[in-house]
Amino acid sequence: MFLLSKIHWPLAAAADSGPVSVIMAASSIAIIFVAINKKDMLQLATLRNNPDAVKQRLAVKNFNELNLVDEIIALDDERKKYNFQYDDTKAKLNAASKEIGALMAKGQKEEADAKKKEVESLKASLKPIEESLAKAEKTLDEMLVRLPNLPSEKVPKGKTPADNEIVRTGGSKPQLPAGAVPHWDLAKKYDLIDFELGNKLTGSGFPVYKNKGARLQRAIIQYFLDFNTYEGYTEFMPPLMVNEASAYGTGQLPDKEGQMYHVTEDNFYLIPTAEVPVTNIYRDTILKESDLPIKITAYTPCFRREAGSYGKDVRGLNRLHQFDKVEIVQLVQPETSYEVLEGMVAHVEKLLQSLGLPYRILRLCGGDMSFTSALTYDFEVYSAAQDKWLEVSSVSNFEAFQTNRMKIRYKDASGKTQLVHSLNGSSLALPRILACLLENNQTENGIKLPAVLHAYMGSEMI
């Protein structure tokens, strides 16, 4: 997709350099087209093999451009036609160019000159075919990236969060003391977070953690990382900005372009989640079967514009533009990905249980799923002082949607190269976890910390 702007130069540069140069240039163009097409062949094959089934699955996600499937197939037919014309003309050009050398060696100058004219004619006819093929390729790529991932058969139908299925619940809602208050009042009372200072320094949605609030933030992050690495995840510390190719690979582009902070001078994007840089570590890589599964965890600040967010639901730590999160990512063999998904859900569940927080696990309906996900489980924690459920984690299987874009593959036991499946989950997002810890554990004498954080904080109470 990103190479299309470079297609015209090889042939143009070779135009005055003789027939051999033309052949080499034509071959380089063909290589470029192969590179472009390879990442989309699986998706195109899926559309072609059973377009009606694809439309049915897209309808579960409430995708309203189902006609796009037919348009893509029709355009691919057109692309194939141009590709055949291109290959046919290139073969004739190749054959004619070889004949020139043979004729010159025999001293048949007139015949050689005639063949040179034929080569010039073929070169001229190749140019419009090349342009038509490039246009078809570009349009096809633009259309393909508008298609979301197909949802799993396990995804329930529905349009809004009200249609999500509650899989199970855990923990007990706390009985708060008289006069209990929400976390933004607790943060002010115990001098833990300064929301006004953050607004002064940057703007709303950028809190300043201070004193024991800053220490508690660090303690939770370290505990989450230790919990994950103990379970076999390797810790990475990735960049906080990524290039366009990385954002495209995990599906943030073009779907969530307006939600990311864009550094226009360098065309970098501030990461909305560690999933983006971490999954891209293996972009354009062919792994060994023995490398799998790959399990990564990473802590990063995350940045989201959250355009249009306002009202009581964004007060305090409920919705921020900058927030801390610990992520887990796995790259696995396709046949194991749904078993791994359940394992990752159990992993996050154990983490919440260790914090003593009441939670529930939801299986998201088609209308509430992300563009890239095939199946997603959301975790919500009960915020006692606000009397509401707050989302603190999403654990998703993307199947081959991301890895198809990033060309992350492995060689199986038979030597066949195929795409891995990618999965990720929040483990966990700190702002709402911190909010619930403060609210649910408030007492008349202070805030009682979960036992697993005592060593990290050096105390049992705030």
Regarding quaternary structure, what we see is: single chain
**Rounded to an integer, what's the Rg over CA atoms?**
28 Å
Mean pLDDT value: 88
Low-confidence region ranges = 1-39
Briefly note the structural class of the backbone. alpha+beta
Outline the structure in words.
The chain is of the alpha+beta class. The chain has 15 helices and 18 strands. The protein has helices spanning 9-14, 19-38, 41-49, 51-60, 67-105, 109-144, 183-189, 195-201, 211-230, 244-249, 275-279, 337-355, 401-406, 430-440, 454-457, and strands spanning 165-170, 193-194, 208-209, 234-236, 241-242, 262-263, 268-270, 285-288, 294-303, 322-332, 359-363, 375-383, 388-397, 408-411, 417-419, 421-429, 442-443, 446-447. A hairpin with a 5-residue loop joins strand 14 (408-411) and strand 15. Helix 2 (19-38) runs parallel beside helix 6. It is elongated, with a radius of gyration of 28 Å.
